[in-house]
Amino acid sequence: MVEVTVARLGLDSATNSYVVVLRERGGRRLLPIWIGQPEAESIAMQMNQVKRERPITHDLCKSLIIGLGGTLRRVSITRVQKSTYYAEMQIEGPTGVVEVDARPSDSIAIALRLDAPIFAPSSLLTTLDGTAEAEGEEVFVDPSDSELTAEQLKAYLENLRPEDFGKFSP
Fold it and tell me: Please, what are the averages of pLDDT over each run of 10 residues along the chain (170 residues)?
């Protein structure tokens, strides 16, 4: 297992699905995972420090973990089976460590909120094909823009193309 970080978020226009791209910490290998719109918006909101009036589900999960005296030790993308990615959240609480099965998108959104590390098997990571066009900035929306609304964020996500975050070799 290698530590990864959220490098990019985009919209795959071919499938009309959102893609979160994880990058090996200190490396160039990537792991793209197709995710749902609510999870993409939640990840983007956290990356850009956008706050809502009321907590969304991933904020609630953070509050539950903390409120019950727990700590999110790590998130692990564990495997891919029939084009479905699986993840586990390792939560340490007063009674010990619990492994919780979860979708990668939810796990990533919660890990970002709790500053927990994310890991993936080295075998799932791929290198960029050709020149490193995607080597640019890691965060796709300027985090200094504190006036970013949920609608602006959604519009930005919907206009991203697969080319915006590079080509992947199989």
Answer: 92 84 92 91 88 87 94 95 92 94 95 96 77 34 43 59 48
Residue 22 makes CB contacts below 8 A (sequence gap 6+) with 4, 5, 6, 7, 30, 31, 32, 33, 77, 108, 118, 120
Contact 111, 72 (CB under 8 A): yes
Q: Is 17 exposed, middle or buried (0-12, 13-18, 19+ CB in 10 A)?
A: middle
pTM: 0.74
